[in-house]
Amino acid sequence: MDQTLAELNQKIDQLTAQVSYLAEQAQIAERQRQERAELMRDVMPIINDAFRLTTEQLEEVQEYVDLGDLLRLFKRLLRNGRNLEAMLDQLESLMDLLQTIGPLSDQIFCRAVDTLAEAERKGYFAFARGGLKIADNIVTSFTEEDVLALGDNIVLILNVIKAMTQPQIMSFVQNTVAAAEEEVARPVDTSLLALLRQMNDPAVRRGLALTLRVLRVIGNQGNK
Question: Could you state, in order of their start, the residue ranges of all structural domains in the chain?
């Protein structure tokens, strides 16, 4: 008898546990049903508004689009699904690349801004503006014939400039200009006696000789 009662109590306990489990599942199902009902109540106005807006928009373009066009577009999208997926993958890769190089591009931009500011401080832009003005003056001062003549003689002009910019020539011009500035600042005695005394200076005689030689060369050029 005791064993039978124990087995009966065990079965009653199992049945009670099963009933509790079923009751719990029923409660869970009821809560889910209520949640779905609440969700539908919240979503339905949004769906109705979206449907109304879609209908209004389609009414505006219905004379330009028909069902056949939409079907062809849909079929084309289906056929190019893989291409669209590959394009999206490339777009994602590009976005990752932009996120990676974003800080680097910011550094490059800041460095470029600093470089431009330094160039402005040193006067590069002012020099460029002055150079443009010089170029404008040159362009407006020469005719087409002058430019053609310049092209015919550009080699000769460049050779003259090359000769004039030799280190010894530039040093000679610089030293001559510096000495001339000092001499111009000093008082000058133009009397005959002072001129004769200067003639006794070997440097003066050498300068006169060189001047006469240069004048001779200029004179010979004029006779050619």
Answer: 1-61, 99-141, 144-186, 189-224
Q: Distance between the two ends of the chain, CA-based, in angstroms? A: 154
Four-residue CA torsion sign, 95, 97, 98, 102: positive
Tens-place pLDDT, residues 124-166 = 888 888 888 888 887 788 788 877 887 777 888 888 778 777 8
Q: 141 and 148 in contact (C-beta within 8 Å)?
A: no
Rounded Cα distance, 49 and 223, in Å: 102
Spatial distance between the Cα atoms of 16 and 112, rounded to a whole number of angstroms: 80
In this structure, the number of other CB atoms found within 10 A of the CB of residue 154 comes to: 10
Q: What are the CA-CA distances from residue 188 to residues 88, 92, 177, 180, 204 (Å)?
A: 89, 86, 17, 12, 15
Strands annotated E in 92-186: none
The pLDDT tens digits of the residues spanning 54-65 come to 777 777 766 666
Instruction: Give the residue from 203, 161, 160 showing the smallest Cα distance to 179.
Output: 203
